[in-house]
Amino acid sequence: MTATLPGDAPLDEPIALQRPTRRQRLRAVLGADRKAQVGLAVLAVFAVAGIFGALIAPYDPNAMAFDMLTAPSWAHPLGTDDLGRDLLSRIIVGTQVSLFVGVSTVGIALVVGVTLGLLAGYLGGWLDDIIMRYVDLQWAFPNIIIAVYLVAVFGNGLTNVIAAVSLAFVDDFARVSRSMVLSIREEQYVAAARTVGVSDFRIMWRHILPNATAPIIVQATVSVSYAILAEASLSFLGLGVESSTPTWGLILSDARSFVSRAWWLGIFPGLAIMLTVLSINFIGDALRDYFDVRETAG
Amino acid sequence: MSGRAQAGQAPAGQVQAGRGGEALVELRQLRKYFPVRGGILFGRTVSQVKAVDGVSLSIGRSETLGLVGESGCGKSTIGRCLLKLEAPSAGQVIFDGQDIAGLDRSATKALRRRVQAVFQDPYSSLNPRMTVAEIVGEPLLVHGVEPGAAGRRRRAGQLLELCGLSARLIDRYPHEMSGGQRQRVGIARALALRPDFVVCDEAVSALDVSIQAQIVRLLEDLRAELGLTYLFIGHDLSVVRHISHRVAVMYLGHLVEVADTDSLFDDPRHPYTQALLSAVPVPDPEVERHRPRRIVEGEIPSPMNPPPGCVFHTRCPLADEVCRRQVPALEPLGAGRAVACFKAGPAAVPA
Fold first, then answer.
1. In 3D, which of B263, B281, B245, B240 has the Cα closest to residue B350?
2. Out of A256-265, B52-61, B64-73, which region has the weakest mean confidence (pLDDT)?
3. What pLDDT does residue A53 have?
């Protein structure tokens, strides 16, 4: 071997970085994206409400009073429910569980589902058969039925609700990521990585996953809204988190008999769910731009 | 499957490395069959695509062997077997005296340092989410050659300059570069581990003609400078002629002719080679209009159901009864040439 390959000669000067760092790029993406800023601001407000809930709430969320079903007023900015409980306080206190369930279930489902999808799609063979037959099985049942079944078997409580809802969403992520993997693994850069001697794990992590992010992010932002609603449905069936803890879903389902007389009971918790979902969608769009280097190349 | 493949083995016409040196790479009766699965529930193998069907070939050190043939003739499959991206159905791939099929995990990783590839499409052979520094530095990282990020960056810069690119392109993403620049990045990645052998699988086919010339020159310079050995797979005969020392011609999974570049192009012996060469247009329109051409009739048969006897007999103007029944072996004709044809004796009719 001749002595002209790099490494034989003394190393040159370091080459200065020719592009913005990841953090600078994230900042640039967010700085240019108004909708993402609004989303972050709204989520920040909800996060404060979630963390300090009981301290901020003007009333005890479970304290009943005689002024039942009163319309929004100075005393009760969002009105009261059928038991005279202050709706604003209930929504503020409910933020914690609703947001936590919505985000954590999707987080867990995403990690588990994408891992399964990557393994099934990349390694194939019997592992693919087993994983995908399970996913098909789960696909045959509506997510909410699975969650109801699991909570019914394992009992109520925050942990069980989160576990049940996460599991119910795993198949969506497995399916989306597997289909991406199947097309990406045929790309020449994957063959090139194998030729270079890159391990299977690193190929999945560095070569396949980064090129599969867009549909996974879309799936995640959609799933957050379904997860919040799934928690609501469980609460509605009496299978949610304990009934002393108000959640957005619980407030909404409690309101069902009274919405014709008290519009605020339906509007405000619904608005909270909608604002959360919208914000997460905005942030999801910005994240997709950030991950897509072609969009933000400068 | 392998047992069946062995059963129909033709006598091996082993072709020695043309340039006198010992062989670095050797294919022995290489076969690669792809199963065609059918059935509703459990994919049963209903038939096989015989992509490569008994190819024996050797490549000497510092030699460039051109491998040509129509698309679908199995030339890229040979490249993938050499790169250990596909496991042969039967036969052996010998690299530097070792059968690469028998290597364990760590020996395979060691092999990867010595055998590299430049791929066809510079638009899909680079990961769009990685910068040039990450792409060229990855081989150095995964083999532990250069564990530090700063050192990898410097080496990546040097490799870019070796391949005729400015080191300032190091933080570009692939979509920010031209096709020629991308292909140079692909070459830099292939050279990062100082390989001995590089498979160039249609390495210039996707580029503009003017860029092709630059990349071919770069590959030639690198070969001379670094003592590389190339398998240059292509279908553009003028490019293959330019870069290769020897050329092997494939048809439907079989090798039909191997010879030194000049003798192959000046005096092709196999009727398929003659037809292939006569299909190359001549730039001078006057010559083009009057030159004799040998045109092959019909379609290339399906590799799922190749014809018996000589695979070329269905389209060969010289074919007779023998060709339809017997498989011609690749017979040496002297001067490093070998032809698989009953009709191509030493005194074959010149084309």
1. B263
2. A256-265
3. 79
Q: Residue B225 and residue A2: Cβ atoms within 8 Å? A: yes
Domains of chain A: 33-58+67-296 (1.10.3720.10)
Q: What is the mean pLDDT of residues A196-220?
A: 92
8 Å CB contact between A83 and A64? yes
A206 contacts on B by Cβ (under 8 Å)? 127, 130, 138
In a domain, B214, yes or no: no
- Per-residue confidence at B43, pLDDT binned at 50, 70, 90? low
pLDDT average, residue stretch A78-106: 88
Q: By residue range, what is the domain housing residue B56?
A: 1-96+231-351
Residue B77 included in any domain: yes
> Is A198's CB within 8 Å of B167's CB?
no
Residue in chain A closest to B134 (alpha carbons) equals A206
pLDDT at B94 over 70: yes
Measure in Å the smallest separation between the Cα of B185 and chain A Cα atoms. 12
**Does residue B257 lie in a domain region?**
yes
Q: To the nearest whole percent, how much of chain B has pLDDT over 90?
A: 50
pLDDT of amino acid A12: 55
B45-67 pLDDT, tens per residue?
A: 778 888 999 999 999 999 999 99
B85 to A195: CB separation less than 8 angstroms, yes or no: yes
* Six token digits for residue B203: 């390495």
**B318 pLDDT higher than 60:** yes
Looking at chain B, list the stretches that DSSP marks H as alpha helix, in order from N- to C-terminal side: 2-7, 75-82, 105-114, 132-142, 149-162, 179-191, 209-226, 237-243, 261-266, 271-278, 285-290, 321-325
Is there a contact between A192 and B186 if contact means CB atoms under 8 Å apart?
yes
H or E, element range at B58: strand B44-60
Count of the separate structural domains present in chain B: 1
CATH number of the domain residue B339 falls in: 3.40.50.300
What gap in Å lies between CA B343 and CA B310, rounded to an integer? Answer: 11
ipTM confidence = 0.84
CA distance A3 to chain B (A): 8
* CB contact set of B126 (below 8 Å; sequence gap of 6+): A189, A192, B135, B174, B182, B185, B186
Note the pLDDT of residue B16.
Answer: 46
B173 and A293: CB-CB below 8 Å? yes
Q: What is the pLDDT, as a whole number, of residue B348?
A: 44
What residues in B contact A211, CB-CB < 8 Å?
Answer: 127-129
User: Is the CB of B167 inside 8 Å of chain A's CB atoms?
Assistant: yes
Q: Which residues of A touch B192 (CB under 8 A)?
A: 196
Q: Using the beta-carbon criterion (under 8 Å), do A197 and B142 form an inter-chain contact?
A: yes
> Is B47 a member of any domain?
yes
Taking Cα atoms as reference points, which of B117, B124, B127, B85 lies closest to residue B190? Answer: B117
Question: Which of A51-65, B14-28, B327-341 has the lowest average pLDDT?
Answer: B14-28
Put simply, the answer to whether B189 touches A192 (Cβ < 8 Å) is yes
Q: Which two tokens stand for residue A275?
A: 């604002």
